[in-house]
Input
Amino acid sequence: MLVLKFGGTSVGDAKAIRQTVSIICNQARSDPATTVVTSAMHGVTDLLIEAAHAAAAGDRQRSRDARQALISRHHDAAEALVSDLDDLNLLLAGVDERVREFERLCMAVAILGELTDRGLAVISGMGERLMAPILAAAVRAQGLSAEFVDAGELIVTDDNYASAGPQMEATRDAARARLLPLLANHTLPIVTGFVGATPQGVPTVLGRGGSDYTAGILGAALDAAEVQIWTDVDGVMTADPRIVPDACSLSELSYSEAAELAYFGAKVLHPKTMLPAIDQGIPISVRNTFNPSFPGTKVVGRARNGGTVKALTVIRGLSLVTVAGRGMMGVPGIASRTFAAVAAQGANVLMISHASSEQSICFVVPEADAGHVSAGLQEAFAGEIRRRLIDGVTNERGVVIVAAVGEGMRGTPGLAARLFGALGDHNLNVIAIAQGSSEANISLVLDAGDGDDAVRYIHAAFGLAGTQTPA
Ligand code: ADP
Ligand code: ASP
Ligand code: MG
Output
């Protein structure tokens, strides 16, 4: 049993969908027990979210424009792919009904003048609900049996509407009850990625890029032999090919390497995709829809490694918040009070670096969180700041993290020095550095403007181009 997930570019227009359908048909002919997960058409989720925000700000034109774009993109695809007139008419009527629902929701948001997370989740999940019925019809048009399934019926989540977490037991029961009879009947379920619902049936979404996570969740629920993520590149690469044109596809990664890369910005996989697969050891492969004979990347429990850096990522839009002063040195409890003050802000801390002199602790957080994190620290240390034990809390905006990832880095001395050397040779300044306790990752903080260059220089210095070992 397999789960195949297709991303936004793989269903971006009729031509791409034809390619996707041929991969599905080939797969289904060799193993009919195949479940398909689809994203929205490329760019549609952005369009929906922007229209919803514009409606909340009183701009109704955006949702009218979005309505036109939604109708024409989905009609064009359906008309190109489905020739049976009854099937096509039903499909187009479904698209129109869904788009009317979108308009009604945007109107409600405009009247209220407010967009709640709950409202945003309903609107942003509509792209998958528009796409999956078209993909199902396109597969049927090739003579296979396929049925659209709304993941709101399968994935039971908490009520953190815009970035919901699955309840795995309830999801397993619901997914098996709905999908196994279809599979037993040799009907391919074509499931919406990204969306879920609370136990009360209120729609939720799994966070941006969450269709990969849907595939991981369903793979675990169905005890799949493999989860395949079909996208627009040859697998997980040594760096984002948009930054490093000679980046190379990696044949194997471990779950933790893949999770680390995804967490530090490699968009090719949602960071949580691996979580449901780990316990059962389900392999996740990352394949190119537009180069289907290429084996891509296999993510497994234990991967081969060559004792060095495997891949580089960059995560943008960050701030560095630093607490510094001689009062930090050797005073018991300062570090724990610092961590507690930051935790109390509920911010997503991406990296912590503690200077070895113990005179400073710095945190890297998303720019949007930096203001309240520094305010929280200032309040917590108001006394020490008054007594000049702590100089103060500084907030440096516009930084990026460049992360070098690879389990082979563990126990290989001198890697941090080589990273510094690669950057120093080009006069790039490293603001802070941290090594994860797993030692599968070294993270460097740099000025935002230096991020892409740093990735290119390190990629070259470590000879990462052309490291693909044949699968
Ligand atoms: P999909 O729509 O198929 O989910 P995404 O756009 O979410 O695709 O992810 C694929 C993109 O991720 C690629 O086009 C590539 O630009 C980007 N990317 C970033 N880092 C990496 C990396 N290390 N390896 C491969 N792709 C990466
Ligand atoms: N369509 C959703 C997004 O753009 C989910 C996904 O594509 O994975 O975030
Ligand atoms: Mg994606």
Summary: Residues 7-8, 39-40, 45, 127, 193-194, 208-212 surround aspartic acid (ligand 2) (CB under 6 Å). Residues 169 and 221 are 8 Å apart (CA to CA).
